[in-house]
Amino acid sequence: MVSRAAARVALLGGLVAASAPAANAQSLPRLTVESFVLSADTPAPRVDVPFHLILTLRVRERITLIENLNLPMLAELELLG
Question: What parts of the chain have a pLDDT lower than 50?
């Protein structure tokens, strides 16, 4: 009896989820990267000494601004500005 009720609830939940419209978290444009250069304003960065990262990115599409760029390899750095 309990398993039948659980199966009905699961089936109903699945039907509700399947009939719900898909929601996009973000609508991001797709870009074709032609070149990507990551450099610093110092040849030898030292621990606890601030330095600037310079990112030069060339894409095929015509855009004026890239507002957000996720670089997982830099996740441990402390951003100071």
Answer: 1-2, 9, 11, 15-16, 20
| Residue 57 near residue 66 (C-beta atoms within 8 A) | yes
Would you give the distance in Å from CA 8 to the centre of its chain? 38
Kindly state the greatest CA–CA separation across the chain: 72
Count of domains for the chain? 1
Question: Distance (Å, rounded) from C-alpha 52 to C-alpha 75?
Answer: 15
Residue 61, domain extent: 30-65
Q: Which residue has the tokens 């030069």?
A: 56
Q: Show the tokens assigned to 54.
A: 């310079």
pTM value? 0.50
